[in-house]
Fold these 4 entries.
Entry 1:
Amino acid sequence: MIVERLGFTVLASGTENPDDKPIANVIFVHGLRGHPRQTWESTEPQVAEKRSSSPFTKWLKRPHSDEANSPESKKKQDQESSVFWPADLLPMKIPKAQIMTYGHDADVIGGPLQGANKDSITQRGRNLMIQLEREIGNTSPIIFVVHSLGGIIVKEGLQWSKTRLQEQFRVLHQRTRHIIFMGTPHQGSDLASMGKLVANFAAVALVDSNKALLDSLTVESEVLDRISDEFSSMLHSNDFTVHSFQEGRGMSGLKGFSGKAS
């Protein structure tokens, strides 16, 4: 299955008849330096990589969006032996749900001769909701499954949609029933600070980066504090339920981060 790098890709419709309506919409949103397929895909890594690569090293080695979206990369997606569980496994558990994955430009460091995306978290949340309203195609409840930065974007997007004058955006917030957070840095992340350091090195090499976004993801970020406060208000109003999962594997091979959860 080919998954587009940007925007929505429908992985399962949840219906056999075009006139039917799915029981729910399950929407996957990836995180920083992530990919709408690769983030949720399991492939057998090389033994050497298992032994030597830290999570941060793997984060740096992820392909730029242009590479991940190239025809060769798309062809490789179907040729590799892998399990893309939102498409391969989840439809067997909830066959009547529409399952979608959303891709956004999460490359904080640009490619050669290419600028990095400068959108803020607020802009990314708004873009998510605008595209969702256009692409969802039904009025069924919504369940978000989010990783890392994707969780922050969804939180901001829900707050944005809740306060809109246009009803078509407010109903997206009203239809959201559950959010499943995976490794979302609600209070910021030390990895964002390390990412800023990498961005400074990139600047020396004349490679563009989105340092403002990285600033927003650091510990004690005012942006994250605001988003958390607004999201807490939605939780206290019982707007939806949340389930959180924290990555607990300790990091190794990176001075200052050894033993910390990734």
Entry 2:
Amino acid sequence: MESLLSLSFDYLSSFDSGKIRKGLRQLEGLLAQICLSKSSNMPAAEKRRSVANPSSKERTPKELASLKDDPAFREFFKLQEGFEWNVAIRLIACLERLLGKGSNGQNDLLIVATLDLLQGILLLHPPSRSLFAREIYMNLLLDLLDPSNCPAIQSSTLLTLVTTLLEQPLNTRTFETVDGLLTVTSLFKSRSTSREVKMKLVEFLYFYLMPETPNPLHSFSAPSTAVLQRSPSKHLRSAFSRSVNGVGRGGYAEDEETRTTEEKQALLGRYLNNVEDLVEDLRESAPFGAALT
């Protein structure tokens, strides 16, 4: 697995669009091997080809509960705990380079593909979300919401932004600190913003207004050179846990600042009128499966 990640990272660090695309496909293939069920009688050579071409076989997603006992997943998860093999860091660096190349059709497609992979990585490895407690990385996502970018990039960025904020109050505070609410509401008010993106923005605001609870798995420290020292037989939940004494941004776990819907409504009200209507919709429709009290 290390050799495949190393090769993918080499491609992602290139300025050549073709090599970047190849690196993204290799990572997609690796994640497909981990997350999708495969036939037990598939020849070894065909298994290797499926890594490079993940769309070559129709496969069904594995049950989440089964991942905790999957050796490939546990090996991948452990590798993500170290800086050298962390995929999220490489994808962020790739986004920075792509953003610097300007807007064109081919580059836009690569940005969308990178964002899609980043979403998956952040869901598979929640500790990597703590990277976005750093303003430099949160600002990168906000830059991708620039009105000059195409609607596909804006929509993918909003989905990625939601993923970075899941169960991460500290990331949400960073989002607020770097004027994330101003960026989002300005895009919503802009006449040039497409209807599809405006719908995504409304969905994002619904998500933002949900009340927060402290992270049940603790606040993860950013990937460091330390790796998890746990038995492979541990439950998936325990695999997601990190010691607050780890290297990186660990020290925030004990006193994460959380905000209620009312507090966030007041913040959002500085930039947008009729926020109370959004809150009322949340109370009535419970779009995320939990009604507001």
Entry 3:
Amino acid sequence: MAPRNSSAPKYPRISDAPLIWPEHPKQNPTWSINDVTANDVDDRHELFLLGDDEKKVVEEVDTRVPNCCMFTFNKEDHTLGNLIRTRLLQSPHIEFSAYKVPHPVFPNFVLRVQTDGEISPREAVITACKDLVSDLSTLSREFTKEFELRKMVQSTQNGD
């Protein structure tokens, strides 16, 4: 490695670099946090409420592969995508099931399902969703039962 030439210009300090953010308080001392308006921040309810022209699920038949469809779930994320994918893979009629989130900023995912032909991909997704609702209601019921039992045990231990 060659020795460094002492006459070479030194790198400027980071604090000397120009700021890219034009509204930064150092460049605009009159700026304050109160200047942020409601239009600058997304409404949180828009992340899960559907608009008038939006559908929750859009089905698209994949013509390249037999018995295959792609479902776009709007206003949903990895939580539901992974639940449905996992439940679909438990079915013997499913040959392929996967999901992807096209972009992390937008709350939607695309689920691709391929079946063996005995049932349609749409029927498979509907069955998986019904099974998930059943499983979640069982989980809720059992959790509530155990929670109430624990409360009763604690109240009898505190009463002794």
Entry 4:
Amino acid sequence: MVSHHLTIDEFFIRLAELFESRRKRDHGSVFLIQKRLSHGNDDLLSSNSSPNLATLDKPFADLHPASPLPVLMRATTGTSKEKAKEKAKEKIKISTIVQPEALEAFFVRYAEVCKSGMQGLRKRDRSGRKKAKAKKRKGGADAEKKA
């Protein structure tokens, strides 16, 4: 399976479209994932040390890489578990790789796109939940009066 990463500009265009399509459907989820992209252990170990010594001396050597690592950004649409096979065709996946020197500018623009995508969200209707709590309290108070 070959993965195709978009350019940063293409990623933002597609991310905005993804938020807009979810807003038009009036339901659905967009999952935003970011993870450090590692190139393997060749950057982590010096050429003079053996891999066994590096893991014994520094069990978490990958926490301090020799050079900054790029970040993989992903966005996918959510699917329900009930109809996952049917909706698998509809699932949209986009990704891009952000180099360390471009991270600050990327996150500024990323925040703007995410904020604009979340403007159409409605507050969750919890009126049924409040009514259930009120009934529960009322039922408990009636039981105390009868006793």
